[in-house]
Write a structure and sequence with these properties.
The protein is of the alpha+beta class. It has one domain: Jelly Rolls. 17% of the residues lie in helices and 33% in strands. It has six helices and 20 strands. The strands form four sheets. Strands 1-4-14-7-8-9-10-17-18 form a nine-stranded antiparallel beta sheet. A seven-stranded antiparallel beta sheet has the order 2-3-15-6-11-12-13. It starts with a helix and ends with a helix. This is Xyloglucan endotransglucosylase/hydrolase. It is an enzyme of class 2 (transferase). It is found in: Secreted, Cell wall; Secreted, Extracellular space, Apoplast.
C-alpha cells in the first residue's frame, strides 16, 4: 500500500507540474506514417494502423522492429506519443532518437530517449543521451524514473534540437536542457540526422547491467507510437546546409514555443529533476575526475543530493507489485557508458 501511495503522490505531482506549464505543442502538425517514415527492420513485427497514424513495434523471439524517417534534418522538433509494453519487461529497450551513425560511423551525432524495461511492470526508466562527433566515450547521459505508469496510456516524448540548445520534453514539461557552450566543440550535435524508433533485446545490459534478461514467456512486447511530428529543415545526410527554405524554417523553429525556455518551464524542469532524476553526468566525479562538462548548471546544494558517481541519493526505484517491498537505488554501479545505460 505504501508503494501504491507513493506512486499516486508522484502521479499527482506530475499533474501539477504539467498544469503549471502552458502547452508547448499547440499547432504542431502530426504526420501519417507514410508521409515521413519508412520501415527499418522487423517485417511483420512493425504493424501500421488502418489510418496510418500510429505504428506498433513488437519484439518477440524472432526479431525486434523499427522505423526511420524518410529524410535527414539539420535541427528541428521531433515528437511522438509512446505507450510502452506492460508486465515483465526486463532487458527490453524501446528507443526514440536521432542519429547519423549510418553515414558517420566513427564521428556520428545522436540524441536519444531510451526506455529501459523492468522486472516490476510499469516501472520503466528513461535515459536521455547527447552525443556529438562520436563522443560516446565521454557521453552526456542522464536517467530518470517516470512519475506515471507509461504502460497504461501514451505520453508524449519530444526533442528540440536547435543550433544553440537542446531540450528534452515529457508531455509539456521540459526535463533536460543542454545549452551549447563554446568549450563543447564537436560534442554538440551539428550534422544532419534521421529520426528512428526501435524496440530490441538489450539483455546484455539494459536491466541491472544484464543481470535480468528478456523473458520471452511474456512476448510479444508491444510499444505503440502515435502523434508522430517532425518539424525542421530537411537536409542531405552529408550536407550541412538545408535543402530549401532553410533560413525561414530555422527562424520558425527558434521562435516556436517549444524552443523557448520561460521561467515557468525552467521551474517545472527543476522540480521534475529533483524528484525523478536518478543519474546525471554533471555530478559523476568517477567517470570524469577532471570536472563537470562546461554546459552543466551545477550547484553545491544540488550536488549534495548525488553520490560521487552521479547517482541520486534520494530518488530510488521501488516495485509497484504486491507483496514484499524491495527497493534499491536506481542506477547502481554507473562507471562507464555501458553501465550508465544499463543500471
Amino acid at each position: 500500500m505504501a508503494v501504491k501511495a507513493g506512486f499516486l503522490l508522484a502521479a499527482a505531482a506530475w499533474v501539477c507540474l504539467s498544469a503549471a506549464v502552458a502547452p508547448a505543442f499547440d499547432g504542431v502538425p502530426t504526420a501519417a506514417f507514410d508521409e515521413r517514415f519508412s520501415p527499418l527492420f522487423g517485417d511483420g513485427n512493425l504493424v501500421r494502423s488502418s489510418d496510418d497514424r500510429s505504428v506498433r513495434l513488437l519484439l518477440d523471439r524472432r526479431s525486434g522492429s523499427g522505423f526511420i524517417s524518410s529524410d535527414y534534418y539539420l535541427h528541428g522538433f521531433f515528437s511522438a506519443s509512446i505507450k510502452l509494453p506492460k508486465d515483465y519487461t526486463a532487458g527490453v529497450v524501446v528507443a526514440f532518437y536521432l542519429s547519423n551513425g549510418d553515414v558517420y560511423e566513427k564521428t556520428h551525432d545522436e540524441l536519444d530517449f531510451e526506455f529501459l524495461g523492468s522486472r516490476w511492470g510499469g516501472q520503466w526508466r528513461v535515459q536521455t543521451n547527447v552525443y556529438g562527433n562520436g563522443s560516446t566515450s565521454h557521453g552526456r547521459e542522464e536517467r530518470y524514473l517516470l512519475p506515471f505508469d507509461p504502460t497504461l496510456e501514451a505520453h508524449r516524448y519530444s526533442v528540440l534540437w536547435a543550433p544553440t540548445h537542446i531540450i528534452f520534453y515529457i508531455d509539456d514539461t521540459p526535463i533536460r536542457e543542454v545549452i551549447r557552450h563554446p568549450e563543447m566543440g564537436g560534442d554538440f550535435p551539428a550534422k544532419p540526422m534521421a529520426v528512428y524508433a526501435t524496440i530490441w533485446d538489450g539483455s546484455a545490459w539494459a536491466t541491472d547491467g544484464g543481470k535480468y534478461k528478456v523473458n520471452y514467456k511474456y512476448a510479444p512486447f508491444v510499444s505503440e507510437f502515435s502523434d508522430l511530428a517532425v518539424v525542421g529543415p530537411r537536409a542531405g545526410p552529408v550536407l550541412r546546409v538545408p535543402r530549401r527554405s532553410g533560413d525561414e524554417d530555422l527562424l520558425g523553429l527558434m521562435t516556436a514555443d517549444y524552443a523557448v525556455m520561460t521561467p515557468q518551464k525552467r521551474a517545472a524542469m527543476r522540480a521534475f529533476r529533483a524528484r525523478q532524476m536518478t543519474y546525471t553526468v554533471c555530478y559523476d566525479a568517477v567517470r570524469y575526475a577532471s570536472g563537470p562538462f562546461p554546459e552543466c548548471d551545477n550547484s553545491e546544494e544540488e550536488r549534495e543530493n548525488f553520490s560521487a558517481w552521479g547517482e541520486s541519493k534520494t530518488v530510488v526505484m521501488r516495485p509497484r507489485s504486491r507483496g514484499r517491498r524491495r527497493g534499491r537505488k536506481a542506477g547502481a554501479g554507473a562507471r562507464g557508458r555501458a553501465d550508465v545505460a544499463s543500471s
